[in-house]
Every structure is written in C-alpha cells, then in structure tokens.
Amino acid sequence: MTTEDLLATCWTTAGDAAPGRGDERSPLSLRERAEAAADAGSKGFGLLYTDLVEAERGYGLAGIRSLFEDNGLSHIELELLTDWWAEGPGVPRRTPSAATS
After folding, report:
1. 30 with 55: CB under 8 angstroms?
2. Model confidence over 28-53: pLDDT tens digits?
3. Which of 10, 21, 24, 71 would bridge 38 by S-S if both were Cys, CB 3.0 to 4.6 A apart?
C-alpha cells in the first residue's frame, strides 16, 4: 500500500482518443471513465476542456461534481494546454494557448 494518490490523466481513460487527431473528445461517457479510474485505484482524474463541456451538457456541473465525489476522485485536473512554449517560425501556434491562460 502506498500513501501516494494516483491521478488518471485524460488519456488514461479516454479510450479511442488521442492528441493531434482533430476532435480529441473521448467516445466514452464521463461516468464510464470516472468509474474505471476509481476501479483502478486512482484518486484523481484528468479531462480535456472539450470533454468537460460535453459532460456539462449531460450532467450539469453539480452532477459532474457528484460523479467525481461518488467515485472517490478528489483531485481533478483540467487538461491540455498546448503550444504555450512555441517560439520561432511556429509562433502563431502559441496565440490560441496564450489567449486561454
């Protein structure tokens, strides 16, 4: 037994979803993902902003909170801000990320 809390990052539970494919939303419901993370022993959960927006439509913010609490997920991480580090010729990639930070 460890005293460390494990966090299931967004890609850990996302199923057939991956970065850089366009629509990165998980095809799995937030309930399926939260329950799988909890069953695996995670105490934390990461999800993309796009998954959060989708889940809010189905559960509402209070429902999402209850879903996490019911599954013992106490550490929540909103992911994935990319290209904030971009420099040089690719600097335009940084603009959308800088606007959200």
Report:
1. yes
2. 999 999 999 999 999 999 999 889 99
3. 71
